[in-house]
Amino acid sequence: MDMDLSGRTALVTGSSAGIGAAIAKRLASEGSRVVVHGRNADRAKAVADEIRASGGEARVVIGDLSTDGGAAAAVRAALDCWGGIDILVNNAGGPSNPSLNWDNAGPSDWVATFQLNVVSAVRMIGGCLPGMKERGWGRVIQIGSIAGISPAPFTIPDYSAAKAALHALTIHLAKSLAGSGVTANAVAPGLVISSVLEDYFRSLPGNAERAWEDIEKDAAESFSVKVGELTKPDHVASLVTYLASPLSAHVHGAVLRADGGILSSAA
DSSP 3-state assignment of 172? Predict the structure, then answer.
């Protein structure tokens, strides 16, 4: 299916690895010019090189979005790449410290997590949105989490609250953009497999000699993933690509789950 993205320019924050890299590659494969962003120049360059090797267009911007200066510099560099940003994917973020809980997380930890996951997105929206509104077309997509819908017990309360705030930010932004030609939506992934997570599951007792397919099936069952396999970065990228395309014109102010059915509900 042609997603009608040729000639559009996308900025994907935190796209030097993982979900962000998958999103950048998928958008490029559909014809978008992609600005790859990260804090590690070598990793970001590797993603951009892979996109170019596959026939796509990509440039690299480096910057720490958790500070005003770093975000402003990243926005300026991204806008300079091709003269504007049509699609902003706010993917940069994550737990500031995965071991935090209510016993050891202090106010400064909460501030750091919100800077990383929420305020960074606000900064990027502030820098990219005016051009979208001026041109009468644009897409703002946040990468949230099912932790922001149904927080996990005991751990990372700061991260769950930050992702919930990001979802609410998206809905409020969508309402403010009525009639502008710019849509705002969020994708909430579930348990997304990574090399670190795969290594963890392989290290569990009894898994050393088992095939990954069997390990993954058991892991999916233990986490109530209804489709029988863990979510992959490409699954998230597919949904983001749809939201970035003109085909999603009537999806606005939505938080769409990509969790394999973990939070199956009618709402």
Answer: helix
Catalytic annotation present for 200: no
Q: Which residues contact 139 (CB under 8 A, 6 or more apart)?
A: 86, 87, 88, 132, 182, 183, 184, 185, 243, 244, 248
Going across the sheet that includes 87-90, the strands are 57-62, 33-38, 9-12, 87-90, 138-143, 182-189, 255-258
CB contact at 8 A, 3 and 247? yes
Residue type at position 20: G
CA 170-162-248 angle, 5° bins: 25
Contacts of 150 (CB under 8 A, 6+ apart): 263
| CA separation for the pair 47, 25 (Å, rounded) | 8
Q: How does pLDDT run across 116-172, given as a tens digit for each residue?
A: 999 999 999 999 999 999 999 999 999 999 999 999 887 899 999 999 999 999 999
pLDDT in tens, 63-85: 999 999 999 999 999 999 999 99
Catalytic residue among 159, 164, 236, 255: 159
Domains of the chain and CATH, by start: 9-192+232-258 (3.40.50.720), 193-230 (no CATH)
